[in-house]
Amino acid sequence: xxxxxxxxxxxxxxxxxxxxxxxxxxxxxxxxxxxxxxxxxxxxxxxxxxxxxxxxxxxxxxxxxxxxxxxxxxxxxxxxxxxxxxxxxxxxxxxxxxxxxxxxxxxxxxxxxxxxxxxxxxxxxxxxxxxxxxxxxxxxxxxxxxxxxxxxxxxxxxxxxxxxxxxxxxxxxxxxxxxxxxxxxxxxxxxxxxxxxxxxxxxxxxxxxxxxxxxxxxxxxxxxxxxxxxxxxxxxxxxxxxxxxxxxxxxxxxxxxxxxxxxxxxxxxxxxxxxxxxxxxxxxxxxxxxxxxxxxxxxxxxxxxxxxxxxxxxxxxxxxxxxxxxxxxxxxxxxxxxxxxxxxxxxxxxxxxxxxxxxxxxxxxxxxxxxxxxxxxxxxxxxxxxxxxxxxxxxxxxxxxxxxxxxxxxxxxxxxxxxxxxxxxxxxxxxxxxxxxxxxxxxxxxxxxxxxxxxxxxxxxxxxxxxxxxxxxxxxxxxxxxxxxxxxxxxxxxxx
Length: 496
Fold this sequence. Notes:
Blueprint: H1 3-36, H2 42-54, H3 58-66, H4 73-80, H5 97-110, E1 115-124, H6 129-138, E2 143-148, H7 156-169, E3 173-179, H8 184-187, H9 190-197, E4 201-205, H10 210-213, E5 226-229, E6 233-237, E7 256-257, E8 259-264, H11 267-283, E9 312-323, H12 331-341, E10 346-350, E11 354-355, H13 358-369, E12 373-379, H14 385-392, H15 395-401, E13 404-408, E14 412-413, E15 416-420, E16 424-428, E17 432-433, H16 434-439, E18 442-448, H17 450-465, E19 467-469, H18 472-476, H19 480-490
Parallel strand pairs: 2-3, 3-4, 7-14, 10-12, 11-17, 12-13
Antiparallel strand pairs: 1-8, 1-9, 2-5, 5-6, 6-8, 9-18, 10-15, 13-19, 15-16, 16-18
Helix pairs in contact: 1-2, 2-3, 5-12, 6-7, 12-13, 14-19
């Protein structure tokens, strides 16, 4: 190459490098300004600033993909305009003052009524909740609506699919709404095809793909677990449509341990409204189910399910909370903070993923330092190494304040529950991490009832019996590298 050619190539390389440096600087400055003006928590803002400024171009790509809750204007507006179930009673049932504060917060933030006179039945993983759901579907006369984050074929999940096909053959309207990412394998499987062939409508929720990533944040997921049968009975809790004997058998964490609650009473209408709103987002409004005379009654087949604990007597008061990115940021977290600050005697939490932000950390440690018995039960083994490391980074502060941390050893504890004192419970799909608080569509029951709190507390106590307590002294004596790794991953906690 001639001298002129070499000089021209060098000049072009210099010009290109300068352009890339200028473009990188412009992107970093522009996104930094964007991050600062988003009005997030300080920890979240700083985490994103570190990623944007420390990673040339890659930080910008990461932020554009998952940095903001881009749900789509039409979807956000439709959620804001969505109808609710029946209006609240003119005279809501009386509650103790501290519980009334939580109920008022829920009413103001979510527009949900306090529903009295509900009958609740709590079933843990040993009591075959899927078999009970099959029995409800086999007795359906009008409609069966199911909504899940994960559907994984095998065992009890196949029995539910068989029941849906039988119901559809009787003329029952059957609809299944599944998260497009969590249930990707099932949605493409022959099992889903057999449901569709039988007349069951199976729809993917929040479809994801490279093209959609340009316009919407694709990791905003529908994490709800919900079954509504004939508008007379409903189920929710932590259990996906899986049989733990078949799900992730090679993950090395043991069987997933879940719990569900069966609801009868006025709150079923609120749970049905959650499904209808989510369904309308993806498939449109189908109108009411067929009239009563159109479908003959079908007795449920005999089941070998283990009998559940006796149901809580009629009279349970509860609110149905459907949180998600279409709501104001962290609405469910703020509601739980309000409940924790009312605690006088105990706060017991079970969650598979525990990555609190500063506000939740302060609420739990403050409760412990003022004499409240605070217990956090988490899995001893997790399917997410990053989440486990980020969780461990908070143990020192929690243990120093007197919070008891226990690690469940008999499988992956997946139940999401909070019991406060003797009359308030939160039960459903929400984990105590930033993904559940900010990014996922979740479903939670706030129950103001001593009987249900006692039943849920008994279940938590059984989990505690199969858990190993974290000793504060032993935890502090871990190696420096272990502490450094935990604290490093903690920096990513707000964006995990």
